[in-house]
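User: Let's play a game. I give you a shape written as tokens, and you guess the letters that built it. Ready? Here's round one.
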């Protein structure tokens, strides 16, 4: 069972080292779930003397006013033999064998945190004492409750101390050790008053009565010790501390314990209770009870740890990786984020993610619809055909067929295809990809830079795609498909009458046939372009954007200095602080998980 107390000791030390003091914060706390015994009492209640009696050593600071200004987590470790020694968590490599030096270090460490202003702090001091004269036990010594502020203290200190004490003892895992002096009315006991508020049934409270030997003659504390004056679930325990004269004379603790036993055994009022009185019995009883409570809480602590680890890992994953310190690490980090973005962009185009279908829609719907809207039949009306053919003939009418007129009609029709042919991949996919790259959300500047670089790259590819696509149209304009005309039925008329005016040289039926022939040819070219334009766009833009969307950005990135790279990774400082705090807390919980697993396997 001793290893259970040792387990909680390790977890408490880990909590303090990693900043978990059980205070209210945005982070999950392990400290609050650990069973602990909090020592509560008013000033001059004998609280320090009780602790020193349990330990068997003088080691606590003494003086007037508020001496204990920070919680002291006192972890007692029973050793089989050897010299007694103490260790502080904040001085992990230093071993104290002089307990006067321990007292001084407690005072000095308190001042380091609070200054010499007599302020209080909730950050605990961890002290471990190893001795053959102690039981395995952990106690938290809290500042003594007070009613008035002394000189040098703020008026709020009375409430500050009460709030700190309450923050410990109101937790259901806290065992309350309420210290009350027997030479004062129990109804005025600060410890009993605050304990009753948080534990009205007395289910977590152990009552300790001090200064029994200093009661007025003719009075005793039997009713209290027997639970008649104020009943708790656990029996009251009386102790007799060393007197101030004993302390001044440095009376040995072992001798003081012996005198305490003799006092209860020889006092007519208390000898029937002697077996459960005294600081030795108090230490053993608290150790046994703490072991029992820890054993009952271990499954719940394990469940809490596993649940919290999963939550912390999920939030850390959402926040992303921390920024690398060196230039190479920053460059690698930016490249990795860009590769993730690039992969998401490719997935949109390839149909793994939604959006690529819009490209197909351009080819299958928008381009054909745009070609249909050109209305070639109006362009090839009789009047327009007559106008273009007569203009093409010039001063000398054609002899057989209006070849130049045909060419002009075809070229003027095909030129109008240039507009619809400029269809290209929309930059919307870039913006969708930027928004879906979680890593880019961490760094606003990098997000803007990557988005701009991708859009600029896509613009360059779009221009190349337009050029290639327009070349296809220009090719059709520059060379007509002769076979198409050879397959047409031969015209029995040989053309117009050259004796007629240039404005009525051709009759309407003949001009309509020319218009129909040109329209058939233009429709054939449109059908061909409808197949070749998508191929050109895919080759020049879609394929190229999948292959080298951020190549230019990567080239420029390689030229940047560390300061410039750092400016791209301008993460919100609050996010950085949150990540660091979460990582620290995750380290605590993983350590706790390993410690608990080690105890479980050892059994």
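Assistant: Ready! My guess for every position:
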């Amino acid at each position: 069972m001793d290893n259970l107390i040792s387990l909680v000791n390790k977890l408490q030390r880990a909590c303090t080292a990693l900043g978990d003091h059980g205070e209210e914060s945005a982070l999950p706390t392990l400290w609050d779930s650990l069973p602990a015994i909090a020592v509560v009492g008013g000033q001059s209640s004998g609280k320090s003397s009780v602790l020193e009696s349990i330990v068997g050593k003088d080691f606590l600071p003494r003086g007037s006013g508020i001496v204990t200004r920070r919680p002291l987590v006192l972890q007692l470790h029973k050793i089989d033999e050897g010299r007694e020694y103490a260790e502080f968590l904040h001085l992990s490599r230093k071993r104290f064998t002089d307990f006067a030096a321990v007292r001084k270090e407690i005072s000095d460490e308190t001042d380091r945190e609070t200054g010499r202003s007599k302020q209080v702090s909730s950050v605990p001091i961890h002290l471990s004492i190893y001795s053959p004269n102690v039981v395995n036990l952990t106690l938290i010594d809290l500042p003594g409750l007070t009613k008035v502020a002394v000189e040098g203290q703020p008026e709020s200190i009375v409430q500050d101390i009460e709030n700190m004490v309450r923050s410990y003892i109101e937790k259901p895992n806290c065992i309350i050790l309420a210290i009350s002096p027997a030479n004062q009315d129990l109804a005025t006991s600060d410890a009993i008053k605050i304990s009753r508020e948080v534990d009205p049934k007395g289910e977590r409270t152990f009552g300790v009565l001090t200064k029994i030997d200093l009661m007025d003659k003719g009075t005793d504390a039997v009713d209290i010790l027997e639970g008649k004056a104020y009943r708790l679930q656990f029996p009251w325990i009386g102790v007799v501390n060393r007197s101030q004269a004993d302390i001044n004379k440095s009376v040995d603790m072992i001798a003081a314990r012996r005198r305490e036993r003799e006092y209860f055994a020889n006092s007519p009022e208390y000898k029937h209770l002697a077996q459960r009185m005294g600081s030795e019995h108090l230490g053993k009883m608290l150790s046994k009870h703490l072991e029992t409570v820890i054993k009952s809480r271990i499954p719940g602590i394990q469940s809490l740890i596993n649940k919290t680890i999963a939550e912390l890992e999920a939030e850390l994953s959402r926040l992303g990786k921390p920024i690398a310190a060196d230039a190479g690490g920053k460059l690698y980090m930016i490249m990795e984020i860009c590769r993730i973005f690039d992969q998401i962009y490719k997935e949109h185009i390839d149909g793994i993610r939604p959006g690529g279908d819009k490209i197909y829609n351009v080819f299958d719907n928008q381009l054909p619809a745009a070609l249909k809207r050109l209305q070639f039949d109006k362009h090839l009306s009789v009047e327009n055909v007559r106008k273009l053919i007569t203009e093409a003939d010039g001063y000398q009418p054609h002899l057989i067929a209006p070849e130049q007129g045909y060419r002009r009609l075809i070229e003027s029709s095909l030129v109008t295809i240039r507009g619809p042919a400029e269809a290209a991949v929309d930059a919307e996919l870039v913006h969708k990809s930027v928004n879906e790259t979680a890593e880019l959300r961490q760094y606003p500047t990098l997000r803007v830079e990557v988005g701009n670089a991708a859009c600029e790259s896509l613009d360059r590819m779009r221009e190349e795609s337009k050029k290639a696509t327009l070349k296809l149209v220009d090719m059709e304009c520059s060379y007509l498909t002769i076979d198409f005309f050879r397959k047409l039925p031969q015209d029995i008329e040989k053309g117009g009458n050259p004796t007629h005016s240039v404005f009525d040289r051709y009759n309407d039926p003949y001009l309509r046939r020319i218009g129909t022939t040109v329209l058939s040819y233009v429709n054939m070219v449109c059908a061909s372009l409808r197949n070749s334009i998508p191929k050109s766009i895919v080759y020049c833009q879609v394929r190229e954007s999948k292959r080298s969307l951020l190549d230019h950005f990567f080239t420029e990135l390689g030229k940047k200095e560390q300061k410039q790279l750092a400016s791209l990774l301008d993460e919100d400082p609050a996010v950085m602080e949150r990540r660091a705090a979460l990582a620290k807390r995750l380290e605590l919980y993983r350590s706790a998980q390993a410690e608990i697993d080690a105890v479980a396997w050892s059994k």
